[in-house]
Write a structure and sequence with these properties.
5-stranded mixed sheet; 5-stranded antiparallel sheet; alpha+beta
């Protein structure tokens, strides 16, 4: 089981790792490419306006630009060309606004302490971060410094609303899980963010380290959710800007298709593993049961073979003993009969009843010994089997007729049950009759006066056989004796009343007919012998 599941689980784990690495690499490349494109768009947006201011300042000069009407005309032209402009103004070198074109009344305002003014005076140009200023509306200031004829300088300033820049960034969004925005270099938001704008418009993500090129990385947000971050610090050709472009993709959302597929694969793997475990368990159980049955059948076969060998050896011994005893018995019987005749002829002996009784006792004992030797020969002899169709019921009743008088005399009740479905049995008549006779004889010996005998037959179509049971309510057999009753010369009867060969002969005859015999008994309750005989017999009986 382990050898089947471990490789499957290991290969699935390796496959997941390869796919995750591939997805991470592809996500980093795509995010970096997206951030790079957005960076070029923002840079172009700002450089385009710086170039326009530089050109205007140099071409028009301070004198013409300080004329409000000319400045208003230039403002309209720039607004038509670029859009997104709020106003245009000229600032003197002391920070005072000397000319203004736009919707607000800001002429004369002092910007000398404004950060953008100071930066522009230092770097000849500037791009401010987003702030509200005097007008109270978020905007960006773009300004350039130019020289006046008297040796001083002035600044041409353009104010941009942030909507055009926000629209430009939004056009680069690639899905609901992608957030793209600008922040300054202190982490303060310059354009709105869907997920990462905290209190006081402060970025909730760590600000990446400065780099002069676009980069991407994989990190976790404040909720420890994995994300892919692309970033770029915005610098124009004329002057650096305070903007940092951030592209943030939520990795879980990006990988939803893959995660759903992996969930389905995991379920498939789980169900497959259960099926593998179930099949292995069932197959193993089936094989173990088969092996157990085979071992048990082997043990039974070996036990039967051993018992058959013992019976065969005892049979050979019995034949030898019977032949050796028969001859002297015949001589003793003949001599005893001759002596008896002499005693009867001669009156002095014939009138002696004690002598006659002794002679008759010798003859009776010899006859008994002769009976034993005949049974020994019957036990060991191999008769030829003649197969024919036998009706079981008439045969049983023929045997019972032998005990009819005894049953009436001892008040023994006999019950029989033979269903009409019992078919003809292909077997040997003589051997079957002897089997039934031996078992019925044993039953009558065990039953007390007034007892009962029950004989039943049952058809087993599945095994193509008939079960014949002979049950008595006699004295029963102890559990210790049950295992010995088929052994030769074993008997529980009183001395001189049994030879111990009846059940051994019965057992041998049943096996000869390829049948089986079982016994169940309880001491004081009775005994049941069940003989199983095949209905059809096509086996070799020559042995």
């Amino acid at each position: 089981m382990i050898t089947a599941l471990v490789p499957l689980t290991a290969m699935t784990s390796i496959y997941y790792q390869l796919v995750d690495q591939s997805i991470n690499t592809e996500s980093l490349l795509r995010t970096e490419r997206l951030a790079s494109n957005a960076r070029r768009a923002v840079t172009f947006f700002l450089e385009e306006r710086l170039d326009a201011l530089t050109f205007t300042a140099k071409e028009m000069g301070y004198g013409r630009l300080s004329d409000p009407k000319r400045l208003e005309e230039i403002f309209r032209n720039l607004k038509l060309g670029f859009g997104g402009l709020t106003d245009l103004s000229v600032i003197s070198d002391n920070g005072t606004q000397v000319a203004y074109a736009g919707p607000f009344n800001l002429k004369g305002k002092d910007y000398s302490n404004q950060a953008w003014f100071l930066e522009c005076r230092l770097n000849d140009a500037c791009v401010s971060e987003v702030f509200s200023g005097h007008r109270g509306v978020p905007h960006i200031v773009v300004a350039v410094k130019s020289q006046r004829p008297d040796g001083g300088f002035f600044m041409l300033r353009m104010t941009l609303d942030t909507d055009r820049l926000i629209q430009a960034l939004s056009s680069y969004k690639t899905g609901e899980h992608t957030d793209i925005f600008l922040t300054n270099r202190d982490g303060k938001m310059q354009t709105p963010s869907m997920f990462y704008e905290g209190e006081a418009r402060q970025l909730t993500l760590p600000l990446p380290v400065y780099s002069d090129r676009t980069k991407s990385l994989i990190s976790d947000d404040f909720n420890e959710r994995p994300m892919v971050v692309g970033y770029a610090f915005i610098n124009t050709k004329m002057v650096p800007t305070p903007f940092v472009l951030m592209v943030v993709k939520q990795k879980q959302g990006m990988m939803k298709v893959w995660l759903d597929l992996r969930s389905n694969i995991n379920w498939f793997l789980f169900v497959s593993s259960l099926i593998v475990i179930l099949v292995i368990f069932l197959t193993s159980s089936f094989m173990v049961n088969k092996m157990f049955d085979a071992d048990r059948q082997k043990a039974r076969t070996m036990a039967a073979a051993e018992q058959n060998c013992q019976l065969a050896s005892i049979g050979q011994l019995a034949v030898g003993v019977a032949h050796e005893i028969n001859n002297p018995l015949a001589l003793i019987n003949e001599t005893a009969g001759y002596i008896k005749d002499l005693f009867i002829i001669k009156k002095q002996y014939g009138d002696d009843p004690e002598l006659i009784e002794l002679i008759e006792s010798i003859i009776e004992t010899v006859e008994r010994c002769g009976t034993i030797t005949r049974q020994l020969l019957g036990f060991s002899r191999h008769f030829d089997v003649q197969i024919q169709g036998i009706h079981l019921k008439p045969m049983v009743f023929d045997v019972l007729n032998f005990h009819k008088k005894e049953a009436e005399y001892r008040d023994i009740t006999i019950h029989t049950d033979f269903p009409d479905e019992i078919p003809l049995i292909e077997t040997d008549r003589g051997k079957l009759q002897q089997i039934i006779l031996n078992l019925v004889n044993n039953a009558f010996h065990a039953i007390e006066n007034g007892g009962s005998l029950d004989i039943r037959a049952k058809l087993d179509n599945e095994k193509d056989c008939v079960h014949l049971s002979i049950q008595d309510d006699g004295c029963g057999i102890s559990e210790a004796d049950l295992s010995k009753i088929f052994e030769p010369f074993f008997t529980t009867k009183e001395e001189g009343k049994g030879t111990g060969l009846g059940l051994s002969i019965t057992y041998g005859l049943v096996k000869k007919l390829y049948g089986d015999i079982r016994v169940q008994s309880k001491l004081g309750k009775g005994t049941t012998f069940t003989v199983t005989l095949p209905i059809h017999t096509e086996r070799d009986f020559s042995g």
